[in-house]
């Protein structure tokens, strides 16, 4: 942790303006600006989630998700346990094994799905991976196989620019972990058979609840294929060879938190009030543009994403590029600590498995004014830390 004593005399002046909200975590992400605990008072607490008020709330969460994200009417949307991890694991364990799988990863969460397929499911697959900052060539994959990938690499800040290269007439299924993409990026539903995300990400909802979106072809696979391994109850999407339809109308597999449901409904309402998906994308783009402008005028910092077309507009990952920095990881940690100590940017250190640097969440719940107020503090923290290190050298 940086301390006052390490700041040499004559170091940079502290900026005078602070962000109103210093929360730039990449998950759980900042609550919508209108959030207030008192607004959750309509949650049917202490009631069964299977009673009419609870079921109505769950169905509203599903159908408002469909409305805001533009999910086609013939796609199924379910609320499932264990957040995005639960939703994605459930999909992999229920659907894979019917054919060869192309496992695609360009950062640690995608790499985790590759490990699952290789070491847990132990199915025939080909791994396609790229280092942090780079992306896999999605055009080079065989889409007659199933394809598992993560749309936005939360820990590298590298995202798929579009789904254009995914063929419409593919024979395999595409399984997309879209947890830090949904509500911030355009997702081409016709190219995605399984899409998952968690409430705690882009809309700033609560943890532990995941969303599973299935195309008609994914449902067809579920109803025609039974994996050879046992499936725990928490993963089971079919009964007697038929999709359990209730899961997709609000009859959840197990008990959800109605407080979290109410919170998600509030976030969805706010999303609609800022122009729905278009408005959310514009807000994330504006936040990212503010950081781009800063990076262009400060030669000591740059994006981890090498190709600007792949730069995320949610999890913006930055690296320090100043030659005077001897210990990259120590330096980045010290800068993040200075920002946290000043309460101007919380939780902005790079992910533990990612290259040293900073990760600043830019999803729509973050106000551009707060990003703009934080950036001079980043310059202050950088200059102060450089001065401290030079003084020690
Ligand atoms: C791409 C990606 N996948 C999966 C996860 C895990 O999400 P959760 O903790 O909501 O299950 C995260 C969390 O940051 C993520 O960024």
Automatic annotation (TrEMBL):
InterPro entries per record: Pser_aminoTfrase, Pser_aminoTfrase_methanosarc, PyrdxlP-dep_Trfase, PyrdxlP-dep_Trfase_major, PyrdxlP-dep_Trfase_small
Question: Which biological process, per GO, is one annotated for this protein?
Answer: glycine biosynthetic process, by transamination of glyoxylate
- Residue span of region Disordered: 1-30
Q: Which reaction does it catalyse?
A: O-phospho-L-serine + 2-oxoglutarate = 3-phosphooxypyruvate + L-glutamate
Cofactor(s) listed in the protein's UniProt record: pyridoxal 5'-phosphate
Keyword annotations of the record: Amino-acid biosynthesis, Aminotransferase, Cytoplasm, Pyridoxal phosphate, Serine biosynthesis, Transferase
Query: How would you classify this enzyme at the top EC level?
Result: transferase
Gene3D superfamilies given for it?
A: Aspartate Aminotransferase, domain 1, Type I PLP-dependent aspartate aminotransferase-like (Major domain)
Q: What is its EC number?
A: 2.6.1.52
Cite the annotated pathway: Amino-acid biosynthesis; L-serine biosynthesis; L-serine from 3-phospho-D-glycerate: step 2/3
The GO terms this record gives for MF are: alanine-glyoxylate transaminase activity; L-serine-pyruvate transaminase activity; O-phospho-L-serine:2-oxoglutarate aminotransferase activity
Please give the family membership noted in the entry.
Answer: Belongs to the class-V pyridoxal-phosphate-dependent aminotransferase family. SerC subfamily.
The protein in question is named phosphoserine transaminase
Starting at the broadest rank, the lineage of the source organism is: Bacteria, Pseudomonadati, Pseudomonadota, Alphaproteobacteria, Rhodobacterales
